[in-house]
Amino acid sequence: MYTIKEASARTGVGVPLIRAWERRYGVVEPARTPAGYRLYDDSALRTLLAMRSLVDSGWTPSEAARAIGAGEIDVAQLASQSDITAGAGSSVRDHRARTIDRFVTAAETASTIETEAALDEMLAAGSYEAVIDDLILPAAAALGDAWSEGRLSVAGEHAASAAIARRLAAVYQAASIPRSATVVVGLAPGARHELGALSFAAALRRTGTGVIYLGQDVTVEGWVDAAARTRARAAVIGAVTPAEADAAGPVVDALRAAGVPLIAIGGAGATDDVTRRLGVVRLPDRVVDAAGAIARDVRRRR
Predict the structure, then answer these.
(1) Which CATH superfamily is domain 177-301 in?
(2) Does domain 89-173 match CATH 1.10.1240.10?
(3) Which residue of 19, 59, 245, 296 has the fewest C-beta atoms within 10 A of its own C-beta?
(4) Mapping DSSP to helix (H, G, I), strand (E, B) and coil, where does residue 211 land?
(5) Predicted confidence pLDDT, tens digits, the chain (302 residues)
């Protein structure tokens, strides 16, 4: 049996990403020590290697997880090939994992200087599009994991998350602002997990698409008013939890009645069941892919 750090070292999948795949897709179900720490067996490692191979080759994590769960993939064979061909890609993933671990450790020790420095290192690693899905958002998810495991206080988690939000807001503000907004982005009433929605709004604005980011906890009336004033061609609602997805229902109904042509939901709470029930588009898991999909759809509707 292996600890999560040992599993990460053996598979080349960062610790935050292992936790995210476990939480979002259930691809592995680790055992737990009496103290609650995760333990992974050889079968779990093979599954992680197979997931990594599929995602590296262009599959979305949700597609890869579904195919593995349905038995459509020869996990043992793919894991063996992935282990052999890890190469330079593994070293990149290891560096990302170390950077994220540094950020979380700084947050755990309430070191503001180190927290800010780790974030700056992430953003300096490449363009916004290159780092948002593989560094920034996994780092945010790692904060939540550290809090749930009792390693990080509520105040520490909020402070570090706020540091991420400030940088995302700066990216959003720095992007070129088109003359008219065609997409409204935000969260449903009561929803407050905004990092995913804000990162998406920044990515979408960087495509040259007109975007207004409404923020968290937006009333139904606020959504309709914003859509009407901007003559929005699309509305995108972030939903991290099932409760936030449920809260999006009345927003969807009101926007549909107001004639908004395209309504989409993104985030971990936007499951296939939710999107089918609400009759909306489910965004790809990766922010950059989601922004590209909405940008293309909006251009087609012009």
Answers:
(1) Cobalamin-binding domain (3.40.50.280)
(2) yes
(3) 296
(4) strand
(5) 788 888 887 777 878 788 888 888 888 888 888 878 889 888 888 888 888 888 777 777 787 888 888 888 788 877 766 654 444 345 556 667 788 888 999 898 888 888 888 888 888 777 888 889 888 999 999 998 889 888 899 998 999 999 999 999 999 999 877 677 789 999 999 999 999 999 999 999 999 999 999 999 999 999 999 999 999 999 999 999 999 999 999 999 999 999 999 999 999 898 889 999 999 999 998 899 999 999 988 888 76
Buried b / exposed e over 283-296, threshold 16 CB at 10 Å, is bbbbbbebbbbbbe
Parse the chain into domains and list their residue ranges. 4-85, 89-173, 177-301
Distance (Å, rounded) from C-alpha 111 to C-alpha 105? 9
Collect all residues with Cβ–Cβ distance below 8 Å to 292 and sequence separation of at least 6: 207
- Full DSSP string of 67-84: HHHTT-S-HHHHHHHHHH
CB of 138 closer than 8 Å to CB of 15: no
Measured in residues, the chain has a length of 302
Q: What's the CA gap between 145 and 147, in Å, rounded?
A: 5
Q: Give the number of other Cβ atoms within 10 Å of residue 150's Cβ.
A: 9
Q: Are 195 and 268 in contact (CB under 8 A)?
A: no
φ, ψ of residue 241 in degrees (nearest 5): -115, 165
Domain 4-85 indexed as CATH 1.10.1660.10: yes
Between β-strands 31-32 and 183-187, what pairing exists: parallel, antiparallel or unpaired? unpaired
If DSSP codes are grouped into helix, strand and coil, which group holds residue 284?
coil
Handedness of CA 226, 227, 233, 235 (dihedral sign): positive
